[in-house]
Amino acid sequence: MATVRLDALEKRYDTTAAVAGVTLDIADGEFLTLLGPSGCGKTTTLRMIAGFIAPSAGRVWIGANDVTTQPPQHRDVNMVFQDYALFPHLTVAENIAFGLVERRAPRAERARRVAELLELVRLPGHEARYPSELSGGQQQRVAFARAIAHPPRVLLMDEPLGALDLKLREAMQEELRRLQRQLGITTVYVTHDQVEAMRMSDRIAVMNQGRVEQLGTPEAIYERPATEFAAGFVGSINFLKGRCVGHEDGCYIVETAAGRLRADTGAARIAGATPVTLAVRPEHLRLDTAAGADGRENRVDGQVAASSFLGNLVQLVVRAAGDLELRVELRAGDRRPPDGATVSVSWPTAKTVLLPSR
Amino acid sequence: MTARWHLLMWPPLLLSLALLVGSQSIFLRGSFFADLRVGRLGSELTLQNYWRVASDGFYLSALWLTVRLSALVVVFTFVLGYPTAYILARMRSVWAPLLLALLVATSFVTIVIKVLGLVILFSPGGLLNVSLLWLGLTDQPVSLRGTEFGVVVGLMYFTIGFFVLLLYGVVRTIPRSLEQAAQLLGAPRWRVFWRVVVPLSLPGIITSALVVFNLCMGAFTSAALIGAGRILTLPVLIQRTVMLDARYAMGATLAAVLLLCGLAINLISILAVGRLKAARRVVA
Ligand SMILES: Nc1ncnc2c1ncn2[C@@H]1O[C@H](COP(=O)(O)OP(=O)(O)OP(=O)(O)O)[C@@H](O)[C@H]1O
Ligand SMILES: [Mg+2]
Hints:
Strand order of the largest sheet of chain A: 6-7-8-3-9-10
Largest sheet of chain A: 6 strands, mixed
Largest interface: A-B, 25 and 21 residues
Helix content of chain B: over 70%
Radius of gyration of chain A: 25 Å
CATH superfamily of chain B: MetI-like
Strand content of chain B: under 5%
CATH topology of the largest domain in chain A: Rossmann fold
Shape of chain A: elongated
Number of domains of chain B: 1
Helix content of chain A: 10-25%
Number of domains of chain A: 2
Number of helices of chain A: 8
Structural class of chain B: mainly alpha
Number of strands of chain A: 21
Order of helices and strands of chain B: HEEHHHHHHHHHHH
CATH class of chain B: Mainly Alpha
Structural class of chain A: alpha+beta
Largest sheet of chain B: 2 strands, antiparallel
Strand order of the largest sheet of chain B: 1-2
Radius of gyration of chain B: 23 Å
Bound molecules: adenosine-5'-triphosphate, magnesium ion
Number of helices of chain B: 12
CATH architecture of the largest domain in chain A: 3-Layer(aba) Sandwich
CATH superfamily of the largest domain in chain A: P-loop containing nucleotide triphosphate hydrolases
Oligomer: heterodimer
CATH topology of chain B: MetI-like fold
């Protein structure tokens, strides 16, 4: 168990920068997820921590050691690969014991540890099977057991659930999280699935084009996104373009096509009259007539352009002035206006986030 | 419904069998008749030729020499070829396929040209001896002509390309992530090689080694040209018996013995691998 520190880590290939300066501090025992779209540099970052890719610049620290130039086998990290990378010529027990053999653990000790790990990943009795005789989820568990057989200081996982179907994926998310908590191993997890990231992580680093756009708890990233990219990548959200024209009562005032709107939270250092974007999640939007008496509400009038029923909620698209489209989520029991009805959409300024425009 | 795709293998199998049996049976038939020299055969069926081969130390030592040289070539080809194949297969460079192509191309250059090149290289005034003398490693020219070692080198010249090509394909089927996983589990390079790469390529190694062995057992040119009449392997002996002595029945007998020995050795190796697979479940 150890902390991990990435210090201005970079990896450049001929023309492109796969990772363009990533600085991260990962706490002891933390579950940190690198989240981002395909090609944003997640795998490259992870492999630089493992030592398979030499960084072009920057350092990697594990605990108190600078491991930047150390080969993978000396870093005391382990990895669960996307394709599991189980040794096909070895049994489940031999796979799990592979690293214990390298570390010259006595035979009895190995057998005890294998039994213990199979118990932990809920696969007792599968010692003698070969990987080809296991289901995808079972292979995944064996890969995990093998990776923690000799507890590494840091556990790396690169989309370990990518090959599983949705049901199994969800079950394994909980399973992996339970095991990680139980063992307290510092974990860096890679996924491009935002739901998975939210469900499992202590903190998420949202990556885009080789950089970390935002680092924070799932709640912070969801409620207070720092960039348009982070806001759009995690969950669904409405963007309203405009110009920041002032600041009063702890509120930013923004001129948009749909009128003057306010935002409580926002990135600091927004100078006057700069182009900005307001962001608000669909579930914070309400259709009602009662004006927020305290002025702590934003309000936009428009027509219902479409609506769809999704069981637990109803999604509306409201078209407002200036070709603005707002997505609104109502609970299924709420009053549901017919298509074409004129409605007034309102939401708290406290739930409105001001972002610098891209 | 059971898949019947295995039926596809029968036409080519039968064709090659027919060609082999058809062409060889006429020749090999001669081995069962007495050899009356100058190309004439006796009229009664007899096993006397086989008896002669089995009882004459000359023929037995030729057989032993052939097997021994072939085995040596297999060993040397493996020692040189396996690391080469592995490195080529794991190279990220765009040059890897080109290097492989070059290496394989050398295997397809007519053997006569290559062997003559070697003969020139190894001759007393050739580059090798001049260099050795100049370096002071020897004070009189060494000759590989007429030595077993020379023949082994000549044979390797033509087997190594095939061997590397075959094993390159085998190593490419082993996912790199397996080696990386082993590395993270604490295995240094040679342990990764020993515990992951070798077992996973073992079936391929055995097959490729057999290919090399078979090529050598039947190789005539290297043994004849580099051996310079002093290294009498069975193929050389067969050529002499048939062409120079016109002893067709004896030549046929030697050919039959060579064929049977080759078959037996292949069969035993394949059975041994089958055993190994069953025991270890090696999957490539
Ligand atoms: N060996 C390489 N040579 C050149 N470019 C590379 C190399 N490896 C990766 N890249 C580039 O670096 C970028 C980041 O790749 P990386 O594999 O880290 O993405 P990722 O975030 O893991 O994506 P995914 O979700 O698809 O796995 C990509 O644009 C990729 O094309
Ligand atoms: Mg990736």
